[in-house]
């Protein structure tokens, strides 16, 4: 694993990479509040066969935020990603994304479908805000409070609290979780700030991926979470619409939460190996 920066205008974009540059590329995009290390377990299992490239999105990890709220809107982010891929000299790639990253990936696909060989969405991209039970203002208030007030006295407190959140733990997940914290003024705080969350939530309410389903290439694969069970009806309705309107493939992964790739990383790895034929990567 290597970590480095690339320059995009005035923004230093932080990249994490695994594998050999001669191998087919899997480009990874994490969810809101996460970092490029969100895919660490998957990458470690695939690095002998693929080059895995994952970035810290603006305002996440070690990449500074966009200053303008409009730059977090999906059409702009799609063009921004296209520029980042050019800087990285990645012309053709497989797209692996989680949560918010999957919404961005679908907008990218609607504009640049020929650059992407195959797409797997990890419990993201199919949910809609207009069917949800919260207003934009309510969601913004929640995330601003959550991100800004997540403060601990030391790393032990931070990691102990984070460890309780997930269904399983591993040395690699500990590395990924530690990437979610920043030491500031003798405290450990959440790496992404409330302003970044606010801008992203605003953009999610403004742009619905359902509006572009018919512009997408067919056979996009969605790995859908099943827990908590009280969300099943909402998820079923939304994923059925994705299946019908986008001609996508939906696979329910039993006993998984929204952090599906942390709950069952081997499932994601197996789906990649089964569906992404290396012979098609040239």
Give keywords:
single chain, 282 residues, alpha/beta, 3-stranded antiparallel sheet, 11 strands
If you compute it from the alpha carbons, what radius of gyration comes out, rounded to the nearest whole angstrom? 18 Å
Give the overall silhouette. globular
Helix content: 25-40%
Number of strands: 11
Order of strands, main sheet, comes to 1-2-4-3-5-6-10-11
Q: What structural category do the secondary elements indicate?
A: alpha/beta
Distance between the termini: 24 Å
Beta-strand proportion: 15-25%
Separate helix tally: 10
How would a crystallographer describe the biggest sheet?
A: 8 strands, mixed
Averaged pLDDT, please? 96
Concise synopsis of the structure shown:
This protein is an alpha/beta fold and 282 residues long.
Explained architecture:
Helices cover 37% and strands 20% of the residues. The protein is of the alpha/beta class. The strands form 2 sheets. Strands 1-2-4-3-5-6-10-11 form an 8-stranded mixed β-sheet, with helices on both faces. A 3-stranded antiparallel β-sheet has the order 7-9-8. A hairpin with a 2-residue loop joins strand 1 and strand 2. Helix 1 crosses helix 10, helix 2 crosses helix 3 and helix 4 packs antiparallel against helix 7. The radius of gyration is 18 Å and the shape is globular.
């Amino acid at each position: 694993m290597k970590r480095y920066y690339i320059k995009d205008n005035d923004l230093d974009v932080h990249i994490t990479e695994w594998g050999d540059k001669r191998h087919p590329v899997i480009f990874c995009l994490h969810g809101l509040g996460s970092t490029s290390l969100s895919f660490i377990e998957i990458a470690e299992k695939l690095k002998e066969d693929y080059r895995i490239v994952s970035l810290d999105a603006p305002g996440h990890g070690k990449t500074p935020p966009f200053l303008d709220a409009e730059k977090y809107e999906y059409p702009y982010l799609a063009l921004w990603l296209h520029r980042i891929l050019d800087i990285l000299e990645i012309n053709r790639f497989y797209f692996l994304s989680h949560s918010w990253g999957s919404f961005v990936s679908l907008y990218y696909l609607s504009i640049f479908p020929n650059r992407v060989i195959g797409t797997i969405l990890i419990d993201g991209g199919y949910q809609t805000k207009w069917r949800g039970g919260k207003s934009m203002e309510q969601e913004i208030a929640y995330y601003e409070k959550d991100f800004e007030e997540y403060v601990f006295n030391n790393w032990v407190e931070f990691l102990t609290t984070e460890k309780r959140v997930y269904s399983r733990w591993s040395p690699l997940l500990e590395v990924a979780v530690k990437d979610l914290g920043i030491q500031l003024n003798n405290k450990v705080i959440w790496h992404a700030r409330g302003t970044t969350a606010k801008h992203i939530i605003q953009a999610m309410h403004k742009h619905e991926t359902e509006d572009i389903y018919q512009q997408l290439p067919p056979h996009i694969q969605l790995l859908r979470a099943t827990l908590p069970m009280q969300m099943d009806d909402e998820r079923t309705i939304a994923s059925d619409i994705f299946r019908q309107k986008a001609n996508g493939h939906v696979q329910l992964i039993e006993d998984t939460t929204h952090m599906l790739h942390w709950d069952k990383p081997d499932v994601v790895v197996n789906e990649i190996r089964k569906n992404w034929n290396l012979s098609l990567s040239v």
